[in-house]
Amino acid sequence: MPTFQERLFHGFGDGRDLGVVSTPLGRIGGLICWENRMPLARYAVYRGGPQIWIAPTADYGEGWVSLLRTIAVEAGAYAIGVCQHATAADYPADFPVPIEPGTTLSAGWSCIAGPDGQLLAGPLKGEDGILVADCDLGAIAPAKQWFDVVGHYAREDVLLPLLADGDR
């Protein structure tokens, strides 16, 4: 869903690409930027059973970290928040929009959360860097046994008709 100035150059998608991809590292899914804040979009991806959730974003702060930890618990997956760190020094002197020297345009806050919601690395704030964490895919099954958002808790038989009913 294009947000703010993105609406100038992006169109609307139809959602057919909301899924996961099997890789040698595991089943990878995720959303970009503020789409991670959209519960129904997250649920559509959760249905594919991601083991690793990738969330590149311009978002940052405690709210972002809290959301990423929630995604890890909801998905029963490792959630990797890849956040931008950008300062005025990252832009060329002839950049067409003036940026005050010393300005931080995006503060970072990259982090990695495990399927239990605990942070394994980060948040990396106010600096460039690389975060690394061991992600044991065997830890996913116990997390999903405890709570599987697309399992018996899902109740699509009850909830999807409510979403389709425009009067509610």
Structural notes for this entry:
With 168 residues, the protein is of the alpha/beta class. It has a single domain (4-164), classed as Carbon-nitrogen hydrolase (Nitrilase/N-carbamoyl-D-aminoacid amidohydrolase, 4-Layer Sandwich), CATH 3.60.110. 23% of the residues lie in helices and 24% in strands. The protein has four helices and seven strands. Strands 1, 2, 3, 4, 5, 6 and 7 form a seven-stranded mixed beta sheet that branches. Strand 2, helix 1 and strand 3 (52-57) form a beta-alpha-beta unit. The two termini are 23 Å apart. 26% of the residues are buried. The model has no long low-confidence stretch (mean pLDDT 89).
Task: Explain briefly what this protein structure is.
The chain has one domain: 4-Layer Sandwich (Nitrilase/N-carbamoyl-D-aminoacid amidohydrolase), CATH 3.60.110. It contains 4 helices and 7 strands, in the order ββαβαββββαα. It has helices at residues 39-46, 62-75, 140-146, 156-164, and strands at residues 21-23, 26-30, 52-57, 78-83, 85-87, 104-113, 119-125.
